[in-house]
């Protein structure tokens, strides 16, 4: 059990039989009435973000999340197959569990799997990945003051805004949290 007064960003808690991670919290002491904690929590099972208010000092369950390294092997239809790097056990995840991550996932890539009491909640991508540009229009110098961009499609099908000097075949460093171009790799 943990007190809501000890909330920290990234903490995993169990509320109403669901597993949440704390995205944001605020301790509020109104002039009249009891203090409370306003929080923004992300459900790790379905990805929904909810706002919950707790009384100051209220205790809730702490969820022990396990992370371990796995390797993405291949997909067949809507099933994506991964292999545990320690035990070499293979398991499948459904496409619905990986919607955002599929923008960055390549075969043989190592990622972390997040699980709670044996239930797989999802995968954690590295903060950035190297992806090759498969399609982009040629950059044209012209009426640009600064910071001109164009669309580029990378090998996973993701389209990102890139500077004009990027060409097909270039390998880019892409931020997996926001899906944005960082630099050339």
> Any guess at the CATH architecture of the largest domain?
Roll
Q: Outline, from the CA principal axes?
A: flat
Using only C-alpha atoms, the radius of gyration works out to: 21 Å
- Mean pLDDT, as a whole number? 88
Structural class: mainly beta
Major β-sheet strand ordering: 1-6-2-3-4-5
Instruction: Give the topology string: H per helix, E per strand.
Output: EEEEEEEEEEEEEEEE
* Largest beta-sheet details: 6 strands, antiparallel
Q: Find the count of extended strands (DSSP E, 2+ residues).
A: 16
Count of DSSP helices?
A: 0
CATH class of the largest domain: Mainly Beta
Q: What quaternary form is this?
A: single chain
Distance between the termini: 45 Å
Share of residues in strands: over 45%
Share of helix among residues? under 10%
Count of structural domains: 3
Question: Which fold name corresponds to the CATH topology of the largest domain?
Answer: SH3 type barrels
Unreliable runs: none
Salient structural properties:
mainly beta, 55% strand, OB fold (Dihydrolipoamide Acetyltransferase, E2P), 5-stranded antiparallel β-sheet, 3 domains, 185 residues, 0% helix, 6-stranded antiparallel β-sheet
Written description of the protein model:
The chain has strands at residues 2-3, 12-15, 18-28, 36-43, 49-55, 59-62, 66-76, 79-84, 90-94, 110-116, 119-124, 128-136, 149-154, 159-163, 171-175, 180-184. It is mainly β and 185 residues long. The chain starts with a strand and ends with a strand. The protein is 0% helix and 55% strand. It has three domains: 2-62, SH3 type barrels; 66-124, Nucleic acid-binding proteins (OB fold (Dihydrolipoamide Acetyltransferase, E2P), Beta Barrel), CATH 2.40.50.140; 128-184, Nucleic acid-binding proteins (OB fold (Dihydrolipoamide Acetyltransferase, E2P)). The strands form three sheets. A six-stranded antiparallel beta sheet has the order 1-6-2-3-4-5, with no helix packed on it. The protein has a five-stranded antiparallel beta sheet with strand order 9-8-7-10-11, with no helix packed on it. It is flat and about 65 Å long. Strand 15 and strand 16 (180-184) form a beta hairpin. The protein is built from no helices and 16 strands.
């Amino acid at each position: 059990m943990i007190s809501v007064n000890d909330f920290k960003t990234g903490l995993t808690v169990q509320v109403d039989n669901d597993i949440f991670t704390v995205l944001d919290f605020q301790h509020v002491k109104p002039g009249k009435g009891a203090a409370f904690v306003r929080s923004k929590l992300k459900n790790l099972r379905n990805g929904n973000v909810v706002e919950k208010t707790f009384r100051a000092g209220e205790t809730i369950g702490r969820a022990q999340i396990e992370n371990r390294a796995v390797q993405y092997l291949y997909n067949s239809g809507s099933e994506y197959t991964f292999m545990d790097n320690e035990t070499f056990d293979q398991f499948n995840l459904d496409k619905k569990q990986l919607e955002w991550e599929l923008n960055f996932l390549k075969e043989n890539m190592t990622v972390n799997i997040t699980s709670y009491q044996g239930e797989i909640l999802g995968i954690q991508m590295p903060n950035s990945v190297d992806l090759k540009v498969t399609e982009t229009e040629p950059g044209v110098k012209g009426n640009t003051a600064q910071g001109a961009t164009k669309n580029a499609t990378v090998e996973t099908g993701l389209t990102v805004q890139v500077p004009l000097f990027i060409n097909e075949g270039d390998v880019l460093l892409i931020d997996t949290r926001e899906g944005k171009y960082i630099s050339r790799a």
